[in-house]
Design a protein that fits this description.
The protein has strands at about 5, 10-15, 20-25, 35-40, 45-50, 55-60, 65-70, 75-80, 90-100, 105, 110-115. The chain is mainly β. Strands 2, 4, 5, 6, 9, 10 and 11 form a 7-stranded mixed β-sheet that branches. It has a 4-stranded antiparallel β-sheet with strand order 1-3-8-7, with no helix packed on it. A hairpin with a 4-residue loop joins strand 7 and strand 8 (about 75-80).
């Protein structure tokens, strides 16, 4: 079974930056497709960014140009660098992966709060 643990969330003023990390264990990290999702209270969980085993990347239109997703297979870690943060970015951010056995896993989330 895969376990995902997010970290790096916190409180930041609008225009500031944070870097989120997702540490994976229990499987072969290099064989995983990885994603960041976020969910604000009362709203549906939405895809923020994704990165495949081959390094293909996609972003939601709302974060393109401000967020950067990356992965370090040697450290079993995925990152989300978030710059120029807006109050609308406030949400719980979740790590998600699809394993090489095509099983879907979620982390518990890390809170990001952006004040105006």
């Amino acid at each position: 079974q895969v376990r995902l643990v997010e970290s790096g969330g916190g409180l930041v003023q609008a225009g500031g930056s944070l870097r989120l990390s997702c540490l994976a264990s229990g499987s072969i990290f290099s064989a995983m497709n990885l994603n960041w999702y976020r969910q604000a209270p009362g709203k549906q969980r939405e895809l923020v960014a994704g990165i495949t085993t081959g390094g293909s990347i996609n972003y939601a239109d709302s974060v393109k140009g401000r967020f950067t997703i990356s992965r370090d297979n040697a450290k079993n870690t995925m990152y989300l660098q978030m710059n120029s943060l807006k109050p609308e970015d406030t949400a719980v951010y979740y790590c998600n992966c699809l394993s090489g056995r095509l099983q879907l896993f979620w982390g518990q989330g890390t809170q990001v709060t952006v004040s105006s």
